[in-house]
Amino acid sequence: MNRIAVGVDPGVVAVSRDGLNAYVANQGGNSVSVVDTQAQTLRTTFPVGEFPGGLTLGADDSRLYVINELSNDLSVVDAVEFQLMRAIHIHLSATIRL
After folding, report:
1. From CA 60, how far away is CA 10, in angstroms rounded?
2. 42-45 contacts: CB < 8 A, separation 24 or more?
3. Residue-wise pLDDT tens digits, 56-90
4. CATH topology of domain 10-89
5. How many CB atoms lie within 10 A of CB 20?
6. Count of beta carbons in the 10 Å neighbourhood of residue 48
7. Residue 96 predicted with pLDDT over 70
8. Contacts of 69 (CB under 8 A, 6+ apart)
9. Does residue 26 contact residue 9 with C-beta atoms inside 8 Å?
């Protein structure tokens, strides 16, 4: 098993259903890194809100949803193009079911 450098303070990981991509929340870098699990290389890293603390993929793996604890928002990411689509302000004291 190889080590793959991602962003600052990596935390939560989500894996695509086909197992080809691993999404790593970089809590200290306010970003998400995408790892190609077959080639064992870093595909890309893109910015999200402050302190990403939770990740989940949509039913068809086309969207990645990122809970950002310090900016109180939900980043909606195009998981095919690896680009932030929008941020939705939320109250993290509320229960969120993904």
Report:
1. 25
2. 42/4, 42/5, 42/6, 43/82, 44/82, 45/6, 45/7
3. 999 999 999 999 999 999 999 999 999 999 999 98
4. Thrombin, subunit H (2.40.10)
5. 14
6. 25
7. no
8. 50, 51, 52, 53, 92
9. yes
